[in-house]
Amino acid sequence: MVNLGDVFPNFEASTTDGDIKFHDWLGDSWGILFSHPADYTPVCTTELGMAAKLAPEFKKRNVKMIALSCDSVEDHNGWIKDIKQNSGESGEWPYPIIADKNRDLAIQFGMLDPNEKTAAGLPLTARCVFIVGPDKKLKLSILYPATTGRNFDEILRVIDSLQLTATKKVATPVNWTSGGKCMVLPSVKKEDEGKYFPKGVETVPVPSGKGYLRYTPQPE
Ligand code: BEZ
Q: N or C: which end of the chain has fewer CB within 10 A?
């Protein structure tokens, strides 16, 4: 298992774009590694189609995308044709898909879903999302069961939050989207507010009298 803040393992893998070593492939970019249960399945087809459609949004955020399942490169390449037709995406396929036939990576990263098995009884990967920073450390992980498709707009939203909060002394509140009001980190002292937040800080009064609910416009 990889915990938040750990350096993501520099694994080697076969992909639809050839063999990779993860850290070399990532370079100085952010990265998203996301698994799906199996090729030629309906929910996965919609998910990978949406990921392809949103590829320019990931690129804009300097995030490299890579998918993974326990199928072969040949299956991935055949299935990509179905995904493209179903999603209406034409042109070059925008991200590699890892072939983890022996489940080495799925086991190493805790991706297997005990409730989902192949016809032969082998476990399948769940819908994992790992966001890795340019420092190669794990910034976020999300795990969905096979029966629940992900919302890729939400994934872009969390990337916006991760990238903002990586450099500014803010956290993003419930249902925040880029451009919305942010919360001042509890670790910021009152006397330092002016230094870090030139656009101002609004402290909301609460019955406890503790001034911890502090809003500030999103820092540049
Ligand atoms: C799907 O992608 O539709 C799916 C795959 C495995 C289990 C359930 C659904």
A: C
CB 44 near ligand 1, within 6 Å: yes
Q: Count CB atoms within 10 A of the CB of residue 113.
A: 20
The verdict on the CB of residue 46 being under 6 Å from ligand 1 is no
């998910």: which residue's tokens? 47
Least confident segment among 25-29, 118-122, 136-140, 202-206: 118-122
Determine how β-strand 30-35 pairs with β-strand 127-132: antiparallel
Asked whether 119 lines ligand 1 (CB < 6 A), one says no
- Residue 114: pLDDT above 90? no
CA of 144 to the centre of ligand 1 (A): 11
Atom of ligand 1 nearest to the CA of 116: 7
Residue percentage of the chain with pLDDT more than 70: 100
Question: pTM to 2 decimals?
Answer: 0.96
